[in-house]
Design goal:
Blueprint: H1 13-22, H2 28-44, H3 56-70, H4 75-82, H5 86-89, H6 94-114, H7 123-139, H8 141-156, H9 163-183, H10 187-201, H11 203-239, E1 244-249, H12 252-261, E2 273-279, H13 282-295, E3 297-298, E4 304-305, E5 318-323, E6 329-336, H14 337-357, H15 361-368, H16 370-380, H17 386-393, H18 396-399, E7 401-405, E8 411-415, H19 420-427, H20 429-433, E9 435-440, E10 443-445, E11 457-461, H21 478-487
Parallel strand pairs: 2-6
Antiparallel strand pairs: 1-2, 3-5, 4-5, 5-6, 7-8, 9-10, 9-11
The protein binds manganese (II) ion.
């Protein structure tokens, strides 16, 4: 994901149009369409400000359009990006938009607006919102791509929002938007969304992972550099040309997931830094693999052939892990340019790809994106069990979490094993500090009672109650522990 400007910068028409023209991706009519969309959007949003203080259009809509451009999207999509909030947030009517830009762009903007009302905090709406998402996907994947770029920009400016909103939006982004990006095989965007959101959803763990990443980058640097140099020389000699070899550093969020899996033992994670070798043909991938295994000892059971057996989202590559000889192990990924391009940019790459390759788009889609068919099948099922929906969407991130509800239907996200007391602290500090117990599905339960997914909980307070050290044994969540320690005078 190429970002041209800091997220709060207002991008003027001249500057924006320069980028569009200099890319040489558009003919005269297309440049004209994009410029008309800029003028129209700017006028429609006149006077509106973001919480960051930037003008709404030049400080948000134009960023979204530029992300779309960096993904190689068409003029229609870039115009759609510029206009994506005109129906939802301005006086512009569907008819006016239709008249000015025709039905295709109106269809896209309309789709984006319909996705606007998702609030994952409200359980019921959550489900219907997800459903809308999928229906939209099955109708036109381009709507999703605009929405993902919209969310990506919103996450970049999340610090300007009030804390409770920050957390809700961040959680929603991980549960819905990053998921979708992943399903669209847009690895870079999925990672970028997760990394931005992770900071707000789990701030303490975020800091911890950041420290671990920093120190392991420092420790492995020398090894990586020496392996890198040897690979570059030897592959160039073998292939007769110099392949692209670069460092891929594990994203913070995927490192976090791995750390959880390995009990925070960083020594068991081998792919914090990986070397990526980009060659021209699949045959060369196997040739280079042979060369590497001949030169360094491969780690047993770490070799994966995703070329012969692509991942469900279409990802292809060879992965192996080698002993460098200096005590460090290094993961190596070998793929072709096409595989690399598709893995980074996913469906958008394919949308702009097909234009240039002159392939039948539908055939291309069938061959490479059979998940799209699966999504469609999924939506076409008339009777869909709500539980199946959630189960399918819950990633490993949400696997060890439970959703419980307030009597009003607000969703509270807790870790598995959380108790009535955790719930009280999750809602409000004062509620936790003076909690007496809680009604769980209508029955009064003690503070230490463990909650089950989808329990409906109402806390009972008594202002004479104050926390005791005994409470520490009754809670699971770090927030509750911290607050109890703080209010019982015990140092952390
Ligand atoms: Mn927007």
């Amino acid at each position: 994901m190429q970002t041209y400007f800091p997220p709060t910068r207002e991008i003027s028409r001249r500057r924006f149009m320069n980028i569009i023209k200099q890319s040489k991706s558009f003919n005269e009519d297309e440049v004209d369409l994009i410029e008309r969309a800029y003028i129209f959007g700017q006028k429609a949003h006149r006077g509106q400000k973001r919480l960051s203080g930037s003008g709404y259009f030049a400080g948000h809509c134009v960023h979204v359009a530029l992300y779309l451009h960096s993904l190689g999207m068409s003029a229609t999509m870039i115009a759609g990006g510029l206009l994506h909030d005109t129906l939802e947030d301005t006086e512009v009517s569907t008819e006016e938009l239709q008249e000015a830009f025709g039905s295709e762009i109106t269809f896209l903007v309309n789709g984006v607006s319909r996705l606007g009302d998702i609030k994952y905090r409200y359980y019921k709406r959550h489900i219907s919102g997800l459903r809308k998402f999928f229906v939209a996907v099955s109708k036109d994947v381009r709507i999703i791509i605009i929405k993902l770029c919209d969310r990506y920009h919103n996450l970049q400016t999340l610090s300007y929002l009030p804390p409770d909103k920050q957390r809700r939006i961040a959680e929603e982004s991980m549960l819905i938007h990053a998921q979708l990006a992943h399903r669209l095989n847009m690895a870079t965007l999925a990672q970028a969304i997760n990394d931005l959101a992770f900071k707000y959803v789990l701030p303490d763990d975020y800091q911890k992972v950041q420290r671990i990443l920093k120190s392991s980058l420092k420790g492995g640097e020398k090894t990586i550099r020496s392996v890198y140099r040897k690979i570059l020389t030897e592959t160039t000699a073998a292939l007769g040309y110099q392949p692209l070899v670069d460092r891929r550093i594990k994203s913070l969020y995927s490192l976090y997931k791995k750390l959880l899996l390995k009990n925070w033992n960083v020594a068991l994670i081998y792919d914090i830094i990986a070397l990526r070798i980009i060659v021209k043909t699949p045959a060369e991938c196997y040739q280079i693999l042979g060369l590497i295994h001949g030169r360094w000892r491969p780690m047993p059971n770490r070799f994966k052939d995703y070329i012969a057996q692509p991942k469900a989202n279409g990802y292809q590559s060879l992965h192996t892990t080698i002993f460098s000889g200096s005590g460090y192990v290094v993961e190596i990924q070998i793929k072709t340019e096409d595989m690399h391009f598709l893995a980074e940019y996913g469906v958008p790459a394919h949308l702009s790809y097909k234009k240039h390759q002159g392939q039948d788009p539908l055939k291309f889609e069938k061959d490479h994106f059979h998940w799209l068919d699966q999504l469609r099948l999924f939506v076409d099922q008339k009777e869909i069990d709500v539980k199946d929906y959630l189960q399918d969407l819950e990633t490993d991130f949400f696997k060890d979490q439970i959703f419980v509800l307030t009597p009003k239907g607000d969703i509270i996200n807790l870790i598995k094993g959380a108790t009535v007391l955790d719930f009280a602290f999750a809602i409000h500090t004062d509620l936790g500090l003076h909690a007496k117990g809680g009604y769980v599905n209508g029955k009064f339960k003690a503070l230490k009672t463990r909650l089950q997914p989808e329990d409906i909980v109402e806390i009972v307070v008594n202002k004479n109650i104050t926390p005791s050290k005994e409470w520490l044994a009754w809670v699971q969540t770090p927030t509750a522990k911290r607050l109890i320690r703080h209010h019982t005078g015990k140092r952390t």
